[in-house]
Each structure stands twice: as C-alpha cells, then as structure tokens.
Design a protein that fits this description.
heterodimer; A: alpha+beta; six-stranded antiparallel beta sheet; about 20% helix; B: PmbA/TldD fold; 2 domains; seven-stranded mixed beta sheet; 9 helices; about 40% strand; globular
Amino acid sequence: MSIENQAQQVIDLVRAAGAMGDLIVDQGESLSLKASEGELEEYKVSSSQILGLRVIKDGKVGTAYSEAVDKNALNSLVDQALTNASFTVTEAHERIQLNDNHLKTDDAVLCPAEDVEIEHKIKFSLDMEGNLVAKPKVKNVPYNSVQDITGQRHVFSSAGLNASSKSRMCVAYAYALIEDGDKNAMEGAGQASRLFADLNVNDLVERAYGNTINILDGSPVASGHYDVIFDEEMQASLFQVFSMMFSGKSAKDGVNPMREKLGHTIADPRLNIIDQPLNSQGFGYSLFDAEGIATHATPLIVDGVLNTLIHNSATASFFDVVTTGHASRSPKSTMGVSLHQVEISAGGATSADLLSGEYLLLTDMTGLHSGANAISGDFSFGASGYLCQDGDRIRPVRGITVAGNFYEMLRKIALIGKDQYWNWEKSALMPHVRFADIAISG
Amino acid sequence: MLNPQSAQSVIDHGISLGANFAELFVEQSQSNIISTLSNQVQSVESGIDFGIGIRLIYGSKVLYGYTNKPEADELKRIMSELAAKDLRAPGISSRSFDYRQIEDLHSAQRTLSIDSEVESKVAFLMAADAAARAEGNMISQTRGTCRQKQQNIELFNSEGLHTSDTRNYIRTGLTSIASDGSEQATGSWSDGGLLGWELQDDISAEKTGSEASRQALVNLGARPCPSGRMPVIIGNGFGGVIFHEACGHLLETTSVAKKASVFHDQMGQMIANPSVNAVDDGLLLKQWGSINIDDEGLDTQRTQLIKDGQLTSFLVDRIGAEQTGFSATGSGRRESYKFAPASRMRNTFIEPGDAELDDMVASIDKGIYASHMGGGSVQPGTGEFNFAVTEGYYIEHGKIKYPVKAATLISTGPAVLKEISMVGKDFSLACGMCGSVSGSVPTSVGQATLKVDDILVGGNA
C-alpha cells in the first residue's frame, strides 16, 4: 500500500470518529561504515518507516505512533490517539490548520542524484582511518564513521494538507587518540554535504590530526576572568543549548525567562539573530513546518532587542499573534516549536580587532546539556582550547571550566566578526563573537 | 513474534553467505507517556515500536541492518545486501533452534499490556504537584511525567539460540520551578524500576513533590560557586554518576578492545584508592538497570569490577570477548532493534564503606558538598569527564556554610579513583539513561556519600 493510501485510510478513520487530525510519515534509508585497524569494522544499512498521528476531538488533543502499518496497526493507531485525547484537558488554542497546500521540496537541490559505488564509500572509510593512524603519535581512531542518509517526511491532514520533503546528507567524521608518554588527547573533525563526491578525505584527516596533536600539550590557565571566543562548532552548540529562550511553547508553559522581554533589549545592540529556514546550503533547510505551514526568515533579535518568540499555530493563538512557521513534531512526540537554522548576522569587527590582545579560543566543551540550565541561564562546562595573543595561539589549554550566565553573556559582547562560518554539520551560520569577562577556572 | 521456521531460513541464509555468526533480534514495544503541567494533564502519548535487527559477524567485522518488515524474503534481502562485499564459502553450519525458556526474575503485575492505568498515574502526579506547591508560594510551576514501557524481545542465532523476554519499565518524577520574580531555579525527583505500575506502592507522591520543591528553593537562594581545585563530598544515589562516567565507560570492552580506554592494559593493577570496591550488577531485583538476559541472549550476572582498588573485570559482550579474550559478562545491550549490541553498564555502583558524613565535612577546610548530581559525559580515550552539581553547598573550616549553584566537576577517571579517600554507609541507587554507541539504555548508578580529596570545581564566583 502506498504512503498516500495508508494516510488516506488513517485520515478517513479519524474523520469517521468525528475528529480532525494530521499524520506525519517519516521514512529513512541509511548506510553507515566504521573502520578499525585497516578493516571495515561495521557496515550498517537500514530502512525505516514510522507514522505519528495527532487527533483533536471536542477540543482535546491526543497523539499516537506506530512502526507497523498493517490494517490492524492503523486501526489501533487511531484508537490509541482518540483514547489518549480523552484524558487531556480541553486545549482551546490547538487546532488542525485549514491548510490544503501541496508543498514539495526540490530533489535536485536537497536530494541530488549521484552514482557512487559502495566500493568507493568503503575506500573512503578505510582511507580516513588508515591515513589518520599513519600520522605520528596516533594510537588509533576509535570513533569514525562514513554515512549516507536519505530521509523523507510527509504531512497529511484531515483538511487536505499533503506536503512532502526529501533530503540527503553524506557525513564523515573521525576522532583520533594520540599518546605521547603519559600524555594523551582525543579530538576530531567532521564534514557534511549533499553529495558524497564533495567529502574530502585528505582535508578531514589533516583537520582531525591538527585538532588533536595541537591540544596534546595543553594545561590549565590560572583561574580568572578572560575574553573568550568560541570556535564555530562550540558557538553553535552554545546557542543551541539555550535556544529555549526563543520558544513560544516554553513561554506558554511559563518556563521561558524571555516571555516578558519581548521588545526589550536583551543583548548587545550589535547582535542580530535570524532564523533562516530557506537557506538550502544548510541542513536545517525546511520548506514547511510540522503543521505544513510554509516557512520564512524570522528575525529573532534585532539590534539587541528581542523581536519575537517562535510559534506554532497553538502558541501563536495563545499569545494572539500569527504562527511563525516553527511547529515541530516527531512521529513520537506532541506538537512543540523549534528553530530551523540559526544565523547571526555579520558584525563590523575586522579579524585584527576581533583577535587583538589576549583571549581564550575555546575549541571543545563538555557537559553541554548537564552543565546548563536554560531556565536560569546558568552554565558551567569543562573546556579546552588555546590561550591566544593578537591572533596567535600562544599555548594549548586543557582541564579548565568555563562558567557564567548565558543571558548575561549576551550583554557582554566585546566584538562581532565580519565573516560568517558554518559549523561542520551546517546547522548554524555565525561570525565569531568575542565575549568579555568570562569566568575560567584552571 | 517471528515464526521460528522463517527465522531458521533467514539464519541459514546468513550462514550460507559465509558469515561466522548470524542473529535476529525481534522487538515489539509498547509505550505510554503521561505529562502534566502543574495540575493539568498536558499530554498522553502512546505507540508501538516494531522491527527486526539483523547481525552478521565475519571475524571481528560486524554487519548490521534493520527493518520494520518481518517477511523472511525482506530479511534475507537485507542480509544479502549486508554481506555483498564479504561473500565466501560457508565455514560452519547453523544449528537448529532449541527454545530456551528463561526465568523471569523481575515479574511485573500492573503492566502496560494489561492496562495503561492513566487515571491512577494522573492522580499520583496531581498529588505530587500539590505536595510541591505546599512547599511555598515561590513554586511557580511543576512538570510531571510518568513513562511506562513494555519491551518484548525475541532472539534467534546461528548457534541454535532461540529465546524471548519481556521487560517492564516504569519511571515517574516531578520537576519544580521556583521563582522570586527575577530569577528561576529548578529541582527534581524521580523513581523507577524494572517493574509495572505497582511501583506506586513503594513510592510517595508527597516525597516526590516536596523533595523537588525543596531542591528548587535551595537553588533559588544559592550563591555563585567558588572555583578551583578543592576536596568535594559527593552525595549518595545519583552521586554514583561519578563512577559511571569516571570509570564505568572505560571498563566497557567497546572502548577496551579498541585500546580507546586508559584502563585497557591495566587488568589486575591498582587503579583506585584501596577504599574503593565497585560492582556492575544485572541481577538486582526490579532495579532499573537489571535484565534477565542481555540483548545477545546471555544470562546476566553480578560483575566485580574493582576489589580493594584493584581492577578485576571488564564489561564484556560477545564481540568484546572475541577481541579481548575475556569471558562475556552478559553485558551486551542495545536501545532497540535499530542498534547492534555493545558492552554496556547495568546497575553500577561503589560498595558502601564505614565513614560518616560529619567526619567528611569536618576534614575539609575549603570545599564543596555536592549532595545531588546531574548528568555528565566522558571521553573514554583520555578518561576526561565532567558532571554537573544540581544541589551543592560550600564548606569552610569543617562546616557547611551556604548553597551554591552552577557548578561542574571535571577530572579524569584514573585521577579521581585515586582521590576517593572516604566512603560512607548511606548506600542507595538511582535511575538514569546512559547514551553510547548502542543507543540509550536504562542504567542505575549508586554509591554511599563519599569524599574526593582533590577535583577541579568550575563555578562563576
């Protein structure tokens, strides 16, 4: 049975029960390779499909999911969602959108065809591991992977919505363990692209090796307050950890500290943050959200002022605004909101200004989730990187912690660089930002 | 769940492709999650997971695939695709299945397949919310959850194994948010185990709510934490996450076999202070990390990892046993059919000692008492770990002075094991979810309150 027929069967059952509903169908195929000591250690293939149903009946919302798609499973899916709805309180703001559009992504852009033999992918995996192991002092490459992933999403609704997206992501990463006497270090690097041919094994090996060997001799710096620049990976991670600050859902639930700050200055006036779902260079590209609403660019912080929270139709209704197209839902979850692809606008600082004097460049942080409290903004992470002077790395730094309050840190911006960089997973596009007076323990 | 004749034909197909070992892991799981926001039900979610994991082993190379389609032809197709680059003449024959009925050591009564008992669970969470709010009007919000899962697994392999098991998991808890108008702070409490909703008989909604709020209120009044190297007392129960991160992950053959663990060549050596005895025990009755059999069909066991400071065992799965020569310890675990099994922890803890908390505090001139811990992470290759303090106090001149917030402890496994100088008597276990190469699996952590003489505390005072 085709996806459309399965969806129609489910939607018909929902309608017959006097309810409205929408159905997400996620399908995926993937190949994953890992190498060890010159041999392929793991070869993994998968094909998967999962259906996630949301129903609204008498103002009550229920969800259910199923990985089985036979007739009994589809009947059970609808029954469970309706039963679950019966236990919840009436939700005045959550409705199935009267949206019958048929949005569809462009395969030529997001899922380009490519003829790559499996032998080529295996060779890439073996070369990546082998070339890295061959470098001086590399003991092994315990974490490495080459992946080719294709995912599809369909969203159907009882209002006639039929939206679909399909995208491909080729990924390679490697982490090298280096030992030298009683010192050791493990760091790595990664690449992501839509075409396998765009992955570059030599570049990846050189960067993974450089990131590891350069940090090997690191030691703590004296405790104190330092200017800090996070590299493109760590800065994207830091903003992701505190992304709840933009959540209309958390604001509706009373746990977002920014709820009362709309229209207020919450950051340095040079800071501009925008969500850019339609930048197809990134893997956060989204043509539509989980309610099938077409997405668009959303300025979040404009000249330091909180411009908007992000909304789905329910949170927008609660705050009496229009949805920003940020509905998010996996087949297993209830409706929430999430950012698609964050961009910080380029600032005005030249590299010479940005990197002047003494500062710490942090290239790795640990405990990003356990060490952060998105409600209070407090954080404390393990960190490593480099003590720098006028753009030069003076020495590697390890065994330190960086701590502070993220929401206060947004006001402690010293400089914003002119050039923007993607993180390697291409989920965020940001210039380097220099933060002043950050607490470091060594 | 899978017809044995079909399974036999698929396993035979795998062996005919030249594999040394072929395995099918069939899973059908039911789940139910109730979420509350203050005194209202926010959502009830449920669903069915179903799929089959296919594993072929050629030497030390693992080929793994999975699908939602149970038909034998589809399973054989995936096997053929997996083995396409490794085809060789069969070296062995697969054995006929001999069904093995396992003994259920943790039989559950109020299971999801009988009734999801939504009303009863909601009543518990409402009582917990009321208890949380009774702690003071600065409690602005609560979030409650009750998660129940029934995982049915069936295993077939080319060595003739055919067995099945049912695992019933339940976990419920509450997070309180305290607010004084300008700042917010959180506290939480949860209970769980390998049993059904009869868990309700062993726990108290009042304790769940009041403990979550007590912690939130302490944190609301907490001061920034001093930083630097200092002695730290780590509380019992979830404080055991220090051993989980600092040592447990480094003893999994997943890291040991790759020589990606600092302990890979230290079997029999003193790796900890002589006051440290550590165990990973899959047999503890109805505990969150317990299992009847592991996800490779092997009996679980109690494994003494460290005895009087000496390394006595690794955690070993099938592949790890072949690669390291150590015997399997029934530690092959996976989140679901979507993952190949790997050596993982179960209920991992430091055994109790005889020290008193008062003596530990009195021995410290300047330090931290971390009474409740959050999560953390470790890099096995170097042993570097971090974990978060969710409730902590500053100690000065042998006295507890004031609560502190936003602290992280960082060190390396080998270093911290040698710095544990005092272990208390108040042993307890706590539930956690552990993420690693084979997904997120239920594990318990545990210890009595203990003192670490020197560790880096990251704070922002």
